[in-house]
Amino acid sequence: MGSYVNSYSIIQALSAAGVGNIVVISSKKGPADYSNMIQRHITISDDDSLLQSLESLHEKYAQLVLFPTHDNHIESLVRLAPLISTFCFLPFRTDTVTLASSKMTQYQHCKRMSVPVPETRLLTNPDDAAEIEDLPLPLIVKPVTRQDLSLSV
Predict the structure, then answer these.
(1) Which of 25, 29, 52, 118 is most buried (most C-beta within 10 Å)?
(2) How far apart are CA 69 and CA 122, in angstroms?
(3) C-alpha span between 101 and 94 (Å, rounded)
(4) β-strand 40-43 against 64-65: which pairing, if any?
């Protein structure tokens, strides 16, 4: 899934191992789509079109092996897992992958193991802003999830 450089690396490895039925599924075309090692490119726009594409491929192939190359792909596959797990191999555990992709969870594990991480505060509402007053400048503020990008702060 995906059509950028990391997808191209996966395509090369699969092709070198003798896999001939390689299909790229992504929301838009990228460099990997121009590889002569892929059978075809399928453009998707949302979970429904991804599900339809996977079901259509399943009509031709008994088992699908998916290589998601972006967080969006993983999130979609987690949502679709109950519908596709009988015919799709997902290279992650759906019950833990979302937790593992959380920066806050990663930082908590690192701190417990004495691995240095950036000083971090989780702000969940405007009243939490006072919690960052003690942090040194320059200060980087970023959303926890992509959905936060659409919220008014």
Answers:
(1) 25
(2) 27
(3) 12
(4) unpaired
The pLDDT score that the predictor gives to residue 152 is 53
Span 14-48, pLDDT tens digits: 999 999 899 999 988 888 888 899 999 999 999 99
Using an 8 Å Cβ cutoff, are 89 and 66 in contact? yes
Cα–Cα distance for residue pair 74/10, rounded to 1 Å: 16
SS3 labels along the chain: CCCCHHHHHHHHHHHHCCCCCCEEEECCCCHHHHCCCCCEEEECCCHHHHHHHHHHHHHHCCCEECCCCCHHHHHHHHHHHHHHCCCEECCCCCCCHHHHCCHHHHHHHHHHCCCCCCCCCCCCCHHHHHHHCCCCCCCCCCCCCHHHHHCCC
The position carrying tokens 């659409």 is 150
CA distance 144 to 110: 18
As a whole-number percent, the residues of the chain with pLDDT over 70 amount to 93
Structure token digits, residue 96 = 């833990």
Phi-psi region of 80 (alpha: psi -120 to 50; beta: other; left: phi over 0): alpha
